[in-house]
Amino acid sequence: MKLKIILLICLWQSPNWVFAQKTATLIYVDLYKDIAIKEMKRTGIPASITLAQGIVESNSGQSNLATSYNNHFGIKCKLDWKGATTFQDDDTKQECFRVYENAERSFIDHSNFLKTRSNYAPLFELDPVDDSAWCYGLKKAGYATASDYPKKLLKVIQDYELSQYNFPELAD
Description:
Blueprint: H1 2-43, H2 47-58, H3 64-69, E1 85-88, E2 95-98, H4 103-116, H5 131-141, H6 149-159
Antiparallel strand pairs: 1-2
Helix pairs in contact: 1-2, 1-4, 2-6, 5-6
């Protein structure tokens, strides 16, 4: 009986959670779309991809890395990182992650991270508005460990119509 009551409470609350998550994501897109467009113009990384990665990697800006350390993309330290760091459990315990002074620095570093590493070079040969190719290309280049990473990105791009930000000249 207790299990049924708990299940009913969970089912009753789930629409509220879904609404809250959708709202958080819409706010996230509104907050960061201009930075993603600016970075697209600077580096050639589609704004839709940057936004989708930020949404997935930071849980729409609500993850601990995003809220406490302004790291919206889960970028780890790597050997060349000279900035501030934090240690968090991820694929293994206490991995080193980059810390940024603000979200914009995280977006800029994300672009630089993709643009300057040779394993991501094939991405820049892709059609800049082919979201599918970019999503699968990121996975192939080793960006994420989750096997369904491309599908997650594509779902976010579709659900929130992020492809429109690849064409800022068409905006009102």
